[in-house]
Amino acid sequence: MSDNSANFSLTPVARLESDYPDKFGIPRQPGLASAARGRLVMLPPFDDPLALRGLEGFSHLWLTFIFHQTSERWSPLVRPPRLGGNAKIGVFASRSTHRPNRLGLSLVELVAVHTRPEVYLELRGHDLVDDTPVVDIKPYLPWADTRPDARAGFAPTAPACYPVEFSADAEAQLAERRDRDSLRKLIEQVLAQDPRPAYRKGQESRRYGVRLRDLDVRFQAIEDPRHGLVMRVFEL
Ligand code: SAM
Question: What is the superkingdom listed in this entry's lineage (predicted)?
Answer without folding.
Answer: Bacteria
